[in-house]
Amino acid sequence: MDAALFGLIVADVIAAPMKVRTPPDAGGLQLIETIELTTGGNVPNSGIAMAKLGAKVAAAGAVGKDVLGAAVVDRLKQAGVDVACVFADERAQTSATVVAVEPGGERCFFHVQGATTLLDAAAFRRCFDLFRRCDWVQIGYFGLLPALTPDLPQLLKELRAIAPRAKIALDTVNPPAEWTLLEPILPLVDFFAPSRTEASALTGETDAKAMVAALRRHMKSGLIGIKLDSEGCCLDDGHGAVFCPACKVDVVDTTGAGDTWFGALLVALQKKMPLEQAGRFANRAAADCCTALGASAGVKSFEQTVARL
Q: N or C: which end of the chain has fewer CB within 10 A?
C-alpha cells in the first residue's frame, strides 16, 4: 500500500454561490445554483486525489452509523480507496461540514466534529496492522483531533517501532492547535506542510524561509513544506529551499485544494520525483482541483497531470 490516511472523514454539503457577506434578512430566501453532498476532510480529500493519481490508498478513521456515513464510505469505495479501517460508530454522527462557496471560489465552513471526537489513542492503535503495510501514514488535521493529539508523541514512537519503513506525514488546519502540542510531535514526522497562515500562527514568522527555519529547529530531518496559495509552495528537505510557482486556472471552487496538494506531493515522492518537480506536480494537481465543484472532481490522472507540468 502506498499510503494510509488517518483522521477526518467528513460529509460536505457544498452550496454555491453563496453571498455569505450579505446574507438575506431574517426569514428571507437566497436562491443559489447548486447544493451537493460530497466528501471532505483530509482522509477523503487527499485519499481520492491520490487514487485518481494512481496510488494505492487506504482510509482510516470513524463515521457515524447514519446516512451521511454510509454515503461517504460508498464514495470512497467508488474511488478505489480501501475502507477496511473506516469504523462506523453509533456514539456520534458522521462529521459534517456546510461549505459555503462564495462568488469567485473562496469558501467558509460550518462544521460539526461528530465522530472525529472518537479518534483517540485506541482508535489509532486499531489501525497499526494497516499502517505497517504502508509506505506513508498521513495524519490530519493537527488542530481538529483533540482526543488524539496529546498522545501522538507516544503513538508515533510505537508506530516507528512496529512499522520502521513507514514514513509519517502530518497535515494541519487553520487555526492549528497550540505550538506546545506540536513541538514534541515534529521530531517524529517525515513531512510537515502547513499553509502560510497556519505556519505563521505556529511560528510567528511571515516569510516562508523564516517559517521553515523556525520549524527546522525542532524537525531536524525530513521534508517541510509551506503552501503559499496563489504563489505556489516552498519545499525544504534540509538541503535548501525550492520555490515552485502556482498554476493559473479559472477557479470554480477551492475546496480541498490544500489536501489535494498534500496527497499529490506524497504521490510524487513515491515516484521519486526530484523535489522541484514534485512541488510543481502537487501545484498542478491542486490547481486542477479548483476547476470543479467539490474537493476531488477536478483532479486528473497521473499521466494527464505530468503532461501539463
A: C
Which residues are CB-neighbours of 308 under 8 A, at least 6 positions away?
247, 284, 300
The answer to the question of residue 24 being in a domain is: no
- The cell numbers describing 194, all together, are 502547513
Domain holding 63: CATH number?
3.40.1190.20
Q: For residue 82, what are the β-bridge partners?
A: 58
pLDDT, the chain, mean: 95
Give 132's pLDDT tier (boundaries 50, 70, 90).
very high
pTM for this model (two decimals): 0.92
Is residue 105 within 8 A of residue 253, CB to CB? The reply is: yes
Cβ-Cβ contacts under 8 Å for 28 (sequence gap 6 or more): none
Which conformational region is residue 238 in: left (phi greater than 0), alpha (psi within -120 to 50 degrees), or beta?
A: left
254 has pLDDT over 90: no
- The amino acid that residue 218 corresponds to is H
